[in-house]
């Protein structure tokens, strides 16, 4: 049966009546506990990030509250506990900030910052060029450079990548550029489904989220931690699998923690519980708990397969640990960021 005719649960039984409770970990969710972020280090990263963003004129003064509420500094300190220094943490924050600026300004219609589904492909190909430069005759290259400098989201990508490339190897930098292209492909799929009001099957939704996910953030874990997993090792199918499992698990974490926030702003927004509810004709509570179960099975596979691969090489063991650190730290950021997230009262 086609899911194109399915409808999402939507109001009035969601945003207007869903009771929530403040932060904390989702009951029954599989995760690894981590120590709290060093507040002084997080504050220093935030200070540097905001100075960088203001210098590049990336967003208006009205965004100041959004910047502090997102807690970029605390996020990257939690995600990269083995980072070489504050400079590399700051660059990780620059990349994270740039990805959010592009998403907000180009993709998110409900945030009031100019995002739109219509014409998204044209904007994203320009965004990709801010990372993967145009090469041609000199006068046209100069026009391209002017176009990049004239747009805040493009400036954010361009200068964040330049700072990353200053310490990452060419292979690590190219890896990141390709993973951003994967992210953009996911943005386009989500926008196309929203424009046509298509509700995907559960497996289709999770395929989309394997592209529209945190993979670019996890692409940089070895560079931020001061080593390189060589390209020939990184490309191996079993390494690609644990990387994808880590990215998929943490992306479902985002779906679960942002569930009430998204429904409040757009009751038809696609997330895993909504898609499960539409496909299985069940209530949102049952669908949410099913999404927790799917996450836990993916997380278990990541842990088990990472452990087996870690025994094959000290370098692979270090990479698997860096992935695990990012996943655990990102969960902690979601679970403790009560400014952004409130859990549904399902327990």
TrEMBL record:
The keyword Lyase applies. Gene3D superfamilies: Farnesyl Diphosphate Synthase (1.10.600.10). Its cofactor is Mg(2+). Its EC number is 4.2.3.-. It holds the Pfam family Terpene_syn_C_2. Keywords: Lyase, Magnesium, Metal-binding. GO terms for biological process: terpene metabolic process. It catalyses: (E)-2-methylgeranyl diphosphate + H2O = 2-methylisoborneol + diphosphate. One of its GO terms (molecular function) is terpene synthase activity. Transmembrane segments: none annotated. Belongs to the terpene synthase family. 2-methylisoborneol synthase subfamily. NCBIfam families: f2_encap_cargo2. This is Terpene synthase.
């Amino acid at each position: 049966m086609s899911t194109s005719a399915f409808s999402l649960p939507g109001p009035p039984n969601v945003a207007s009546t869903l009771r929530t409770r403040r932060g904390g970990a989702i009951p029954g969710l599989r995760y690894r506990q981590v120590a709290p972020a060093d507040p002084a280090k997080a504050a220093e990263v935030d200070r540097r990030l905001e100075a960088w963003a203001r210098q590049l004129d990336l967003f208006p003064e009205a965004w100041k509250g959004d910047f502090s509420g997102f807690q970029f500094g605390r996020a990257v300190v939690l995600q990269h506990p083995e980072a070489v220094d504050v400079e590399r943490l700051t660059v990780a924050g620059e990349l994270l900030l740039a990805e959010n600026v592009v998403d907000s300004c180009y993709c998110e219609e409900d945030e009031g910052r100019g995002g739109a589904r219509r014409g998204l492909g044209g904007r994203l190909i320009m965004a990709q060029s801010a990372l993967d430069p145009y090469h041609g005759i000199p006068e046209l290259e100069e026009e391209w450079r002017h176009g990049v400098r004239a747009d805040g989201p493009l400036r954010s990508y361009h200068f964040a990548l330049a700072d990353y490339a200053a310490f990452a190897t060419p292979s690590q930098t190219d890896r990141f550029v390709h993973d951003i292209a994967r992210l953009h492909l996911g943005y386009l799929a989500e926008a196309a489904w929203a424009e046509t009001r298509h509700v995907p099957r559960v497996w289709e939704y999770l395929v989309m989220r394997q592209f529209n996910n945190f993979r670019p953030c996890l692409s940089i874990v070895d560079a931020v931690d001061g080593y390189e997993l060589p390209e020939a090792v990184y490309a191996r199918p079993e390494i690609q699998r644990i990387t994808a499992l880590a990215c998929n698990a943490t992306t479902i974490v985002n779906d679960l923690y942002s569930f009430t926030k998204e429904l409040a702003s757009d009751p038809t927004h696609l997330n895993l519980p909504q898609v499960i509810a539409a496909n299985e004709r069940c209530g949102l509570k049952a669908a949410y708990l099913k999404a927790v179960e799917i996450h836990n099975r993916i997380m278990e596979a990541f842990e088990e397969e990472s452990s087996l691969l870690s025994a094959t090489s000290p370098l692979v063991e270090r990479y698997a640990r860096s992935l695990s650190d990012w996943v655990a730290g990102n969960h902690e950021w979601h679970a403790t960021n009560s400014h952004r997230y409130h859990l549904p009262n399902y327990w």
